Amino acid sequence: MSPDPRPLVIGIGQPWRGDDAAGLAVLDLLPADRLELRPHHGEGLGLIALWEGRPLVVVVDAACAAGTPGRLHRIDTARATPFDARLFRCSSHAFGVNEAIATGRALGRMPARLIVHAVEGERWDLGAPLSPAVAAALPALAEAVLADALPAR
Amino acid sequence: MTRRIKVEALARVEGEGALDVTVRDGRVTALHFRIFEPPRFFEALLRGRPYSDAPDITSRICGICPIAYQLGAAQAMEDAFGVVVSPEIEALRRLVYCGEWIESHVLHVAMLHAPDFLGLDDALLMAKTHPEVVETALRLKKLGNRLLEVVGGRAVHPVNLKVGGFYAAPKRAELLALRPELDWAAAAARRLLRTVAAFDPPDLTRDYLFVALRHDRDYAITGGRLASSEGLDAPIAAFPDLFDEHQEPNSTALHGRTRDGRAYMVGPLARWAINGDRLLPDVRAEAAALGVAPVERNPFRSIVVRAAEVLQVVLEAQRLVDAYRPPDPPAVPVEPRAGVGVGATEAPRGLCWHRYRLADDGSILEARIVPPTAQNQPTIEEDLRQVVERGLALDDDALKWRCEQAIRNYDPCISCATHFLRLKVHREP
């Protein structure tokens, strides 16, 4: 099976855990005809399997509250060394995004380019909707993802 | 003088939870293992929804084992409606479940649990010190992914399973295309088993009450009867008569016990002890040659049994692919009616039981889901009590490590929740 030639956007989240769903919700705002959009639960080995060999991958995830819910972060993994793991301390997974990046680097299984976008979350309760701050940030988050995924648009 | 040990995060356990231990005069006086489990939320969410929504909604309970929830829910509905699926559908369900076992077990064995036995702080170091193990894990995991994609329609949150069978059957050629990778996987799973069988486990042997499904022919995965190491043989509908769940004040999770109040264990060690005669001869021989006993009572050997189960499901997947005939039709027709149905499968972490009560139109009146981790919780606490008492000579860091390792013996899918496990040990000399 030949890989999809479109840039890959991986949205990470749990649909029933408040702001954890932000990475999934943003996929609905992106053009499915020009990007490969993959919802994912964020388990790290699965992420490496998805992204290795791809020219351009953008990962979107919710980040722990760091004071400003809805604030956007952009991490270009080619530049950010060491990767700031603290942002993703509230990941569902013991082997999550941060571990996937570190392991992918150690094994030489990274995409040519990997950019992580994150939005600071506020609430993670089971059954809660997105917080107003995160919901309001989604269009800007989608725009930021597009700027990296389709720079020549 | 009181010594207090505090750990902010217990890593490498899927989900969230906390452990609190108080030690006085060399004895554990209090021990609470708290976990957060979402099935209660999903039970409420399911009420009032059509029966056909249950596989899709329950699959969201756990990102690591969606098939366990989807299939248990589908089987329960089929039971309520008096529907029996064809052997071809049954075989395809087993194949996709093999994919889920491969994915879940390989992640846990190689990335989450092996570092404990190798004296490594985390899986990141694994990639540096044992890159061949991590490479093998990655490739096996990809194969599991691929099985979920081809049969389940998607690797994450599969969409092709439904009450009665599948929305569409994969083509034979699509499955045969996986055959070369399955051949590689058989050799890789043997290597992984050899690697972990050589690990030196901490000493702890307990006389567990093992509980697992038992199938009349196969190593139980997609179904069977309730069985135990004490000779229990009962239909899955009898589960509530035999086992009870009660809420602990410390936890949102329910703790499972037998009706006479005893802790029991579900998962790889239980399956191994109860269904050893249902293993493929090849797996039994390989395990025996590596010193894996027919009944393993040291919980720290669960990593070895998990690896043996990876070999079992890889070899089974080979056979299922070879014998595959697309089910036609891909799903049997379903006619809703009022009633109660039960379903149970062996999730990677152990027995996962479902029961639904349905109205005439097939809408869900009541849902009950008993996941494996809730059942294991009292046993995990009993293990920890012994681990702490035996480990009091260890310094605080080493004791904490040992407790974490003991919890990880159960691969507790504290579920796809968020956050992390906190560990506190209070020592009162």
UniProtKB/TrEMBL annotation, chain A:
Any GO BP: protein processing
Keyword terms of this UniProt record: Aspartyl protease, Hydrolase, Protease
Key word Protease present: yes
Record keyword Plastid present: no
Signal peptide: none
GO terms assigned for molecular function: aspartic-type endopeptidase activity; enzyme activator activity
Family: Belongs to the peptidase A31 family.
Protein name in the entry: Hydrogenase maturation protease
Species name: Caenispirillum bisanense
UniProtKB/TrEMBL annotation, chain B:
Organism of this sequence: Caenispirillum bisanense
Cross-referenced InterPro entries: Ni-dep_hyd_lsu (IPR001501), Ni-dep_hyd_lsu_Ni_BS (IPR018194), NiFe-Hase_large (IPR029014)
Cofactors required: Ni(2+); Fe cation
PANTHER family: COENZYME F420 HYDROGENASE, SUBUNIT ALPHA (PTHR43600), CYTOSOLIC NIFE-HYDROGENASE, ALPHA SUBUNIT (PTHR43600:SF4)
Residues that, per the record, bind Mg(2+): 43, 62, 369, 419
Residues where Ni(2+) binds: 65, 413
Key words, A-Z: Iron, Magnesium, Metal-binding, Nickel, Oxidoreductase
Binding-site residues, Fe cation: 65, 416
Protein name: Coenzyme F420-reducing hydrogenase, alpha subunit
GO molecular function: ferredoxin hydrogenase activity; nickel cation binding
